[in-house]
Every structure is written in C-alpha cells, then in structure tokens.
C-alpha cells in the first residue's frame, strides 16, 4: 500500500496520522516505511516517521531536504539562498519505492504549498504518482477545506483515495461530532478513518 499524505492546512496532524498508518501497516505484515521529502524548521516530523518504521531507513533517506527556516519551502529557500534539491528527492524516492511494497509519503503543509516558483506540493505528488490521502483536522471549517482540497487533487488529475479525519480535541462539540456525516454525504471519496485524540493504533481501513 502506497500513499501520498497531504493536509487541508499545516498543523492538521499529517505526521501523527502518517506514523499511525505506518505502524498499522507494519503490524499487518507490510514492509512500510515513511518519507518526509522536505522539512522546514526542525526535523521532528521526519524523526517521527523514522521511528515509526523502526529506523529501517536512515534519517537522510526519510528526509533528504531540510530547511532550518520554518516556512513554506519556497520561502525558506529564499531566506537560506539555496534551492531544494528535487533530483535528490526523486532519486531517494525511486530507490526506496523500488525496494518496498509499501511507502507512505508525507507532504509539507497543504496541497498548494510552493516548493519552487510555480512548483507546488501538488507537482511533487504528481511526479510520485501515488494515490493521495487527505488528512483533515476535525474542527470548524473542515468541510470547506476538505472539499476544496479533494477537488484540487482531482483537478490535478490524481486519484484521491479518501480522507482521514483527525480529532485534535478529546471532547467533541456539536460541530466536530457532525462533520464526519456531512463530509461523508458531500464527498465522492470515502472517509477512510476518523482518528480519535487518544488513539495510539490506527485500524487499517485504507484499501
């Protein structure tokens, strides 16, 4: 099982969900590893994916491009006066993809976060050619953000495998408790799973 994870925004829990998914797939017998091609700021996201796969890849394989400035990659590249090495990302991805049955790739920020001038996370996902899973934080605004993100993925000509709702709060209110059913009604792709704030193991429901 191979997926590219994107988010409806930054800070929606992509890394948390990716790590749960990696652990669940490995528990089910897959050789799953996680990749975070670009980090901006600290490297904690890549370290989390590295640990979820029991350190089977080096941290530099998990995360070949690291900007220290905490911003969109395009902005960070301007601040640090260096371009992201896309060829290095492509080479690492191709090598790891060829050697594994299962790879989870986590994007950076949302679908249209710029990596270069007029080259976005969407373009990187298109190059990798994996089905896309949308991680959406279950909060006010998630319906609009999720619908827009799914439509954008489909407009790029890619397959959206579905949506994973991530509950950031342990006590749901009326809005968060109804978002699942409303999205299920409005979306043409499935809600693959709803992660609870307390959850430590993701049941495998991604087909």
Structure, explained:
By secondary structure, this protein is of the alpha/beta class. The chain folds into two domains: 14-130, 3-Layer(aba) Sandwich (Rossmann fold), CATH 3.40.50.300; 132-207. It is 41% helix and 22% strand. It has helices spanning 14-27, 44-52, 59-62, 73-80, 86-99, 121-128, 142-155, 174-186, and strands at residues 3-7, 33-35, 38-40, 65-67, 103-110, 114-116, 119-120, 132-137, 160-166, 191-195. The strands form three sheets. Strands 2-5-1-8-9-10 form a six-stranded parallel β-sheet, sandwiched between helices. Helix 1 packs parallel to helix 2 (44-52) and helix 7 packs parallel to helix 8. The mean pLDDT is 93.
CATH superfamily of the largest domain: P-loop containing nucleotide triphosphate hydrolases
Secondary-structure element pattern, one letter each: EHEEHHEHHEEEHEHEHE
Distance from first to last alpha carbon:
8 Å
**CATH class placement of the largest domain:** Alpha Beta
Strand content: 15-25%
Quick take:
It contains eight helices and ten strands. It is of the alpha/beta class.
What is the element layout, followed by pairings?
Layout (H helix, E strand, L loop, with lengths): L2 E5 L6 H14 L5 E3 L2 E3 L3 H9 L6 H4 L2 E3 L5 H8 L5 H14 L3 E8 L3 E3 L2 E2 H8 L3 E6 L4 H14 L4 E7 L7 H13 L4 E5 L12
Parallel strand pairs: 1-5, 1-8, 2-5, 3-4, 8-9, 9-10
Antiparallel strand pairs: 6-7
Helix pairs in contact: 1-2, 7-8
Looking at this protein, list some descriptive labels.
single chain, 207 residues, alpha/beta, Rossmann fold, 2 domains, 6-stranded parallel β-sheet, two-stranded parallel ribbon, 41% helix
